Amino acid sequence: MKLTVIGCWGGYPKKNEASSGYLLEHDGFNLLIDCGSGVLSKLQNVIHPEEIDAVVLSHYHPDHIADIGVLQHAKLIQGFLGKSFGTLPIYGHNQDQQEFLKLSYKEITKGIAYNPGLPLKVGPFDISFVQTNHPAICYAMRIEVEGKVLIYTGDTSFKEELIPFSKDADLLLCECNFYGNQNGKNAGHMTSLDAGTLAQAANVKTLVLTHLPHYGDLAQLIEEAKQNYGREVLLAEEGLIFEI
């Protein structure tokens, strides 16, 4: 698997950057994980929008789905310009019908409801889900292919169930919207200390902090996470690539 960070900011995109969006590639299949504000613009530094084979969404907050409509129109316009491609599947939960129905647009995209209690096969990827602690219904993802494992927490405060869910993952892409001296529980977000605790308890190989705050010294997040986790800790940033 090849993971490319397209956007990594929580709430809204930093100037000239994007909120949540991650491109996962394997055997020529391109899976976009979340599609927040600014993602479509930044994605075009890596691939063309019409080259996306599928999209999977953690939840329906704008910083994770704001560019879905933009993606739909990009494909529509490319169709007017003579490009031919099939309907793009967009996987999301259907526990918010109003938002789920927006995933289908003409013959351009089709919303497909995943059952979070069952595994999902998308191209070469096997995806399983666990519900997180967040104001909107949100699901973390365990994505596996050929024995390699990526965990994407989506948005969540610390939750014990995430430990077995993340067990022995090669990479933990973990939200970290708060510093160690803060409490993210009510907001449904993790602190740097929470991220380190999860990574250590789950015995993951690499911890990548994402969904980053817009204030403070971000390097502090790494140092705080390392208080609870003894392996490599990195900050997500646009264009960062991981070969898993």
Outline the secondary-structure elements:
Blueprint: E1 2-7, E2 21-26, E3 29-35, H1 39-43, E4 54-56, H2 62-65, H3 68-80, E5 88-92, H4 97-101, E6 109-113, E7 120-122, E8 125-131, E9 139-145, E10 148-152, H5 162-165, E11 171-175, H6 192-202, E12 206-210, H7 219-226, E13 232-235, E14 241-243
Parallel strand pairs: 3-4, 4-5, 5-6, 10-11, 11-12, 12-13
Antiparallel strand pairs: 1-2, 1-14, 2-3, 7-8, 8-9, 9-10
Task: Kindly summarize this structure in a few lines.
The protein is α/β, with parallel strands linked by helices and 244 residues long.
Which descriptors would you attach to this protein?
244 residues, alpha/beta, Metallo-beta-lactamase, Chain A, seven-stranded mixed sheet, 7 helices, 14 strands, 29% strand
| Count of helical stretches | 7
The domain count comes to 1
Q: Supply Rg.
A: 17 Å
Sheet with most strands: strand arrangement? 6-5-4-3-2-1-14
Beta-sheet strand percentage?
A: 25-35%
Written description of the protein model:
By secondary structure, the protein is of the alpha/beta class. The protein has one domain (2-243): Metallo-beta-lactamase, Chain A. The protein contains seven helices and 14 strands. The strands form two sheets. It has a seven-stranded mixed sheet with strand order 6-5-4-3-2-1-14. Helix 6 (192-202) crosses helix 7 (219-226). The protein is globular and about 55 Å long. The mean pLDDT is 97.
